Amino acid sequence: MNRRQFLSRSVIAISAASFAEWLVGPGLLAAAPASPASSADKDTVKIIQFDDAGKKIGHERVKVVRKTDAEWQQQLNAIQFQVTRKAATERAFTGQYFDLHDKGLYRCICCDNALFSSDTKFESGTGWPSFWAPIANENVRSSNDLSIGEARTAVSCTECEAHLGHVFDDGPQPTGLRYCMNSASLKFVKRA
User: Fold this and answer.
1) CATH architecture of 35-190
2) Does the pLDDT value for residue 85 go beyond 50?
């Protein structure tokens, strides 16, 4: 999306929201308060487990992995910490997996959650490992990212909230998506 398209879409979205609020009245568009979640619901997430061969084991509710920055720094090297915990981006063509063509599974470097399969990896020419789909939608989350002044969709690990990269809508079929991931956020497990 170029700058003109971005600005046009922003103006349209703001105008539509203003008109909708005028139409139904102020404050009526706000979402109804959610029912209070139990402590267990806030501390756990549902993911799909996979073995190292990429075979689906099944749904599981797991505890969200939370650590202090000091604990993450003991576990991760400097670039892994900056990418996964501080939402940095590694330089293009420098990560260990952008040009890897082996068959296997890509897990989260922080918590070992299964994220992507080599079966959906493709050569995007961007210098980062790219996939047209995660191994399971439940295992990744997306959120709005305006950190560079442009709307993007950030992707993170469901289990530990590690920043993985971004997803774009310029990928191949069947999804048309490009999950552009940082090698530093991934751990590759080669298929035996």
Assistant:
1) Beta Complex (2.170)
2) yes
